[in-house]
Every structure is written in structure tokens, then in C-alpha cells.
Design goal:
single chain, mainly beta, ten-stranded mixed sheet, globular
Amino acid sequence: MNRRTTLAAALTFTAALVLAGCGGADGAPQLKVEGPYMPRPVDQNMAGAYFTVKNSGETADKLTSVTSDLSKDITLHKTTGTKMEQVNSLAIPAGGELRLSRGGNHLMFMGLKKKPAEGDKVAIELHFATAGPIKVTVPVKALTYAPKK
């Protein structure tokens, strides 16, 4: 009887380890934000923000909106060639990333409630089609700031 109990305990423990190793295997997007920054705005009319959203999950997602106390009007923009257009969402591929950068995809803050200065931090919340929201602190950098690649 003792050997059976030991064997049952070992099998239960092994099954628990196997199931624990499957964490996140439900295929949900696994999102993480890296390198956020906002160049110091020239005036109080508008500002841009940039960052990368990495998705280590097995399912694609979409960035659908952004909220912040800095502005009520924050839009997503896509740049193709020299043409910039407002879009309803930006895709984040499974196992890939969405890069927001100057001259490419980006956020536009219109009608700022105040003009942030270099060194300030702007709180934003990213909203996605599938994943839960992510809060991000965006440092305000020099107007000419360019992140290292």
C-alpha cells in the first residue's frame, strides 16, 4: 500500500509540474511595452509618443486606443511612405512587435491640457482588442531625442 501511495503522489506531482509548465498556453497575447518616450512638444497644440509593444504570446492582438490625463484626443497613426493616416487600430503580431517611431506608426495627442517639459513623465493607458489595458509612464525627452537602436 505504501508503494501505491508513493506512486500516486509522484504521478500527481508530475501532472502538476506539467500543467504549471503550460501557463500562458491558452494562446492569449503576452504584451510588454519597452522604450516609451515623448519628444518635448513645441507648443500646446500637439505631441507625439513612441514605444514598442512586444508580444511573446501565440495570438495576435491590436492596439485600439490610448487614454491619458494629458489630452482627451489621442489618436493612432500609421505612416506609409510619406502619407500619414489616422487608423482605428494597430496590429501586434503573435511572437512579434508593434514599433511606434518617428516617421512610422505613432500616437498623436491633440489639444494638450498642459505642455509637458523635458524631464516630466506622462501617464498613459493602452487598450487592446484582446489583452487587458497596460499603464505606461512616458518620459518627456529633448525635442531632438533619438533612441539608441
